Amino acid sequence: MDENSMAKDSADRSGADSHGPDSHSADVIVVGGGFAGVTAARELARKGVRVLLIDRNPYHQFQPLLYQAATVQLGVSEVARPLRDIFRGERKVRVVVAEVTGVDPRAKTVTTADGGTYSAGHLVIAAGAEANFFNTPGAEENGFPLYSVEDAVDLGSAFVAALDEADRGAYDGELHVVVIGGGPTGVETAGAVAETIKYVIPDYFSPELAGRCHAHLVDMLPNVLNAFADRSKEYAQRNLERMGVQVHLGVGVSEVTREKVVLADGTEIPARITVWAGGLKASPLIAAAGLPQGRGGRVDVDPDLTVPGFEGVYVLGDAANMTDARGDRLPQLGSCAQQAGKWAARNILADRAGRPREPFKYVDKGYMAMVGRGSAVAEIGRKRMLMTGPLAFLAWLGVHVVLLSGGLQKLRALVSWPSGFISHRRSYVLLPRERS
Ligand SMILES: Cc1cc2nc3c(=O)[nH]c(=O)nc-3n(C[C@H](O)[C@H](O)[C@H](O)COP(=O)(O)OP(=O)(O)OC[C@H]3O[C@@H](n4cnc5c(N)ncnc54)[C@H](O)[C@@H]3O)c2cc1C
User: 3-state class of 168 per DSSP?
Assistant: First the structure.
């Protein structure tokens, strides 16, 4: 029996072509509607498998563009898409919006904060990651992480509020924005803040206020973009400094307060706003599920993406330490999570058809980071073909349009990105939230 007839047979036997409103069971439960979870659910549904997709948010968020939302270059609807829109008309996928509080990987049940319990034959855990503050005193209380749409709105609102306060004279000092972490997120955020200071604040406020604003980037390593080639690292640092970012390298952060960032060598950088891009750890759900944790709290999965010792449980994307056929660790990237989602679906179909699972074959598309307008680094493909400048900038735009989910979102991005880059307009409204 092939995959399609197998799946149809399963649907026929369950007597359900779609989920009823009270259905708490399915063939597969997917926890997390990020890159990995959405892709897995879509692939399974296409083959007739009934999926329950559970996420705490009613939307799928697009992390690569969060720094643009945080600097008000894009609106929330350009960096998030409703899950119900992604799966509209897809009767095999039931979206449940709820906080998952417990997973029993042996019974294959999932519990939600409102007391719901859901069960399935297979579990796919794709709950992503969260900021890792590495116990740095004051970092969690006073720093702004950047992992979710809420984080981006909090950071953007604080930045706009700080500018308004400075403009009306609530304080007449200098406005320092300190970004901690020199990886792609930190570099992109620091670059976007510097561009805002250079091109936006003089127009929207005054050149005098722009003269009082400063962007900093701090990392304990001796260079930015540590995973990249030396030429990319040098290019990114040179361009950040050219744009006015003060780069502090080779020294860690020992404390973050409301007014400053203290470095391990005693240097104090005044900070009105501190952005924490210093690292990630797996979702706390992994520990709650009692799954074996490896580096970063993530699950060391087998090459076929299953959890050793837990039949029918898959962990994907940022929640997992995934390896390729040679045993090399795979990166925490959107395209890797997407491909893992597709592969897990394929292996679940194999399980259901009684065929052997296959080890995940990752197609390495390389690394990229945006530094500023017309300025980016890209190392394309497994062979790391190096690009910098406008060509890399265009490659970054192209790759991220492809990663975006849905034609409408791609179209919106194609219109709003270039116009935002050219005009430096900031026309989006951020509604401030009460920070949790
Ligand atoms: C700021 C930033 C910039 C990035 N830039 C790039 C880039 O330029 N290119 C690139 O390829 N990659 C980039 N990445 C990495 C990429 O976004 C991640 O690797 C990818 O999102 C991982 O996908 P995922 O599906 O594993 O997790 P996520 O996309 O994080 O999805 C996890 C989902 O699980 C849900 N969830 C978590 N816990 C619970 C719970 N308890 N109950 C219910 N739901 C829950 C969350 O709401 C979320 O929807 C970036 C990441 C960040 C943070």
Answer: coil
